[in-house]
Design brief:
The complex is a heterodimer. By secondary structure, chain A is mainly beta. Chain A has strands at about 5, 10-15, 20-25, 30-35, 45-50, 55, 60-65, 70-75, 85-90, 95-100, 105-109. The relative contact order of chain A is 0.35. The radius of gyration of chain B is 13 Å and the shape is globular. Classes of the chains: A mainly beta, B mainly beta. The interface between A and B is medium-sized, with 24 and 20 residues.
Chain lengths: ~110, ~110
């Protein structure tokens, strides 16, 4: 079956750095997405990786290793507004998005 | 402004009643999707549509129905056959389904069945 694993919850301190991991086992691979979702709101797009390596976008970076079935989202200089759930999703061979359950990130002052 | 709208934000219904959730987009996207989100679970695909007058079942279509009579609109009906309808429902769209394009989400409708 298809599976996406992420930690359920993480806690970090304002101003610090946090890494959210995602491992996947899917039928084929056409890219991996990270979305941010604040409580009760819609997910919003953060990043897309299809090739191995690190993609940097401001305070957020996303890494992919296709051979290991692994990705991480790195958030730097954490701000209180970064408190949210972070969703990992993989586009499989049928171009269907398979979603992880999300990681709830709690930022403490 | 371009975007996706869902209405209402909160919806309450009695058990046994059908209810229709609205989803409209003005992004000129071909593909539209309906997801259900439950606590502690990933988004699960209910139905999707790649073009007007065509739609396909997702992983959890039982107890739901959709229509796509216009490109802009993709309403979802939660029927009385859906055993656990209380959930957060998200509508999304993308330029195409068979692509790496990101999906754009509406604000969601929280349905509570009493």
């Amino acid at each position: 079956g298809q599976n996406i694993d992420q930690p359920t919850e993480m806690t970090a301190t304002e101003g610090a750095i946090v890494q959210i991991n995602c491992t996947y086992q899917t039928s084929g691979f056409n890219g991996l997405f990270w979305y941010q979702q604040h409580a009760g709101e819609a997910p919003t797009f953060l990043s897309y990786n299809v090739l191995d390596g690190l993609e940097e976008k401001g305070r957020f970076s996303s890494f992919l290793s296709r051979s290991k079935g692994y990705s991480y989202l790195l958030l730097k200089e954490l701000q209180m507004k970064d408190s949210a759930s972070y969703l990992c999703a993989v586009l499989d061979s049928n171009y269907q998005l398979i979603w992880g359950a999300g990681t709830k990130l709690i930022i403490k002052p | 402004d371009g975007g996706i709208t869902q209405s209402p934000k909160y919806l309450f219904r009695k058990e046994g009643q059908n209810v229709t959730l609205s989803c409209e987009q003005n992004l000129n996207h071909d593909a539209m999707y309906w997801y259900r989100q439950d606590p502690g679970q990933g988004l699960r695909l209910i139905y999707y549509s790649q073009i007007v007058n065509d739609f396909q079942k997702g992983d959890i279509a039982e107890g739901y129905s959709v229509s796509r009579e216009k490109k802009e609109s993709f309403p979802l009906t939660v029927t009385s056959a859906q055993k656990n309808p209380t959930a957060f429902y998200l509508c999304a769209s993308s330029p195409q389904t068979v692509s790496y394009n990101e999906q754009f989400f509406g604000p969601g409708t929280r349905l509570t069945v009493l």
